[in-house]
Write a structure and sequence with these properties.
CATH class: Alpha Beta
Number of domains: 1
CATH superfamily: Flavodoxin domain
Distance between the termini: 10 Å
Number of helices: 6
Largest sheet: 5 strands, parallel
């Protein structure tokens, strides 16, 4: 089965998207995928700068993140929405991982990957506006972003104490999107 890397574009302790990422990781495992749940807080990065890159090379955490991306076939991103777009943390992470090192091909960490986008927000749209930007960025760097996506609205009351989603219909949509990811990724690997 495919290897799936799951992470949230937030490091906030009580982040709804970190909860959603943990839930998605468990669902992907239940679907038979090998899963790595990544916490971006464990890989702090400076703000991307080509000058910094030229002077010091890729930060060690960017090198490690590129390795993790390279070891996985698919991605699940739980994306918070900041002012109708993606978080600076997520954009900065994407940018550092995109940098070429040595004789590797351009965008080596992204090419050939599949992805599903999820979002959770206290708002009525559930972070949907930000997913449009994440989709555009990832598609532009070689990731096959699947059409299925789920935005969990009213996130402050969407999760049970155990981290599950209270609404079975929403949980079903998340599971369906993840099943499509696991299935598509597995078929593309064959």
């Amino acid at each position: 089965m495919p290897r799936i890397l799951v992470f949230a574009g937030s490091t906030r302790r009580d982040s709804f998207n970190r909860k959603l990422a943990a839930l998605a990781a468990g669902m992907c495992r239940d679907l038979g995928a090998e899963v790595t749940l990544l916490e971006l807080a464990d890989y702090p990065l400076p703000l991307f700068s080509q000058d910094l890159e030229a002077e010091e090379g890729l930060p060690a955490n960017a090198v490690e993140l590129k390795r993790l991306f390279g070891e996985n076939d698919g991605l699940v991103l739980a994306c918070p929405e900041y002012n109708g777009s993606l978080t600076p943390l997520l954009k900065n992470t994407i940018d550092w991982i995109s940098r070429r090192t040595g004789d590797e091909p351009p965008l080596a960490a992204y090419r050939g990957k599949t992805a599903v986008l999820l979002s959770a927000s206290p708002g009525a749209l559930g972070g949907l506006r930000g997913l449009v930007h994440v989709r555009a960025i990832l598609s532009g760097i070689g990731v096959l972003v699947l059409p299925a996506q789920v935005a969990v609205s009213n996130a402050f009351k969407a999760f049970a104490e155990d981290g599950s989603l209270i609404d079975d219909a929403v949980a079903g949509r998340v599971r369906t999107a993840l099943a499509e990811l696991v299935d598509t990724t597995d078929k593309l690997r064959a």
